[in-house]
Amino acid sequence: MRLLTLLSLVCLLFGCSTPKPQNDTRREAALPLMLIDPNAFERDYQKTCSHTQVCEAPLVCIKGQCDIPPSLLGDSTHDAPKLRFRTSQGEHDIALEICDDDYTRMRGMMMRKAFHPDWGMLFIFERDEMRAFWMRNTYIPLDMVFIRRDGSVANVLSQAKPLDETPTYRSTDRVRYVLELPAGSLQRFGIDAATVFDMKSFSAK
C-alpha cells in the first residue's frame, strides 16, 4: 500500500507514462473515418451488446461488443463472410458486412467517411420486391448492385451521391439482395448485368 501511494505521488509530481492499450493504433486510425461524438465513442466502444442497435453509429456489435466496423480499415483479422462473384474479368471475393434486419438495413453505411475497397455491405431482405435506396447521413459515394434471389443482377447504379435523400436509387426488378460498394467498384471489378453472384452462403429468410 505504501509503495502504491509513493508511486502515485511520484506520478502526480513528475508525470508517468501509462502503457497504451494494444488497440490504440487501430482506434487512432479509425476515429477520423467515423462521424461520431468522442464522448459517445468512449462510452460505447467495447460496451457489451447483443445487437448493433445498442451501439452508437457507426459502431457495430461484433462478438458481443460494440466495435469499430472492420470495413473501415479493411480489418483482415475479422472473421467476415465472403461473397464470390464472376464477371468478364474473372472471379472475385469481397468481405461483407451484413444488414439483415430492419435496424441494420435502415442504418447501412451512415456516419462513415470511408469504406475499404475490398469490402461490401450486403442488404438481405425477407421477400423479393422492388427496392429503393437513398443516401441519408451517408457521406461517401457508393455503387449499388441489385441482385435477384438466384444471384443474377437486375441492375447496377454507380456513384450514388453523398447525403442525397431522394430515393432515386431503385431496382428495375424484384430483388432479394442489394450490395453497396465504394464508388468505382463496378468498373474495378467489371460488375454489370451479366455478373453472377454466389448466394449459397446466405440463406434467404
Task: Give me the secondary-structure topology.
Blueprint (H helix, E strand, L loop, with lengths): L1 H13 L9 H7 L7 H7 L15 E3 L2 E3 L2 H4 L8 E6 L2 E10 L2 H6 L11 E11 L2 E2 L8 E6 L5 E8 L8 E2 L4 E8 L2 H5 L6 E3 L7
Parallel strand pairs: 4-5
Antiparallel strand pairs: 1-2, 3-4, 3-11, 5-10, 6-9, 7-8, 7-10
Structure write-up:
This protein is of the alpha+beta class and 205 residues long. It has a domain at 70-198: Jelly Rolls. The chain is 20% helix and 30% strand. The chain contains six helices and eleven strands. The longest helix is centred in the N-terminal third of the chain and has 13 residues, at 2-14. The relative contact order is 0.14.
Care to give the gist of this entry?
This protein is of the alpha+beta class.
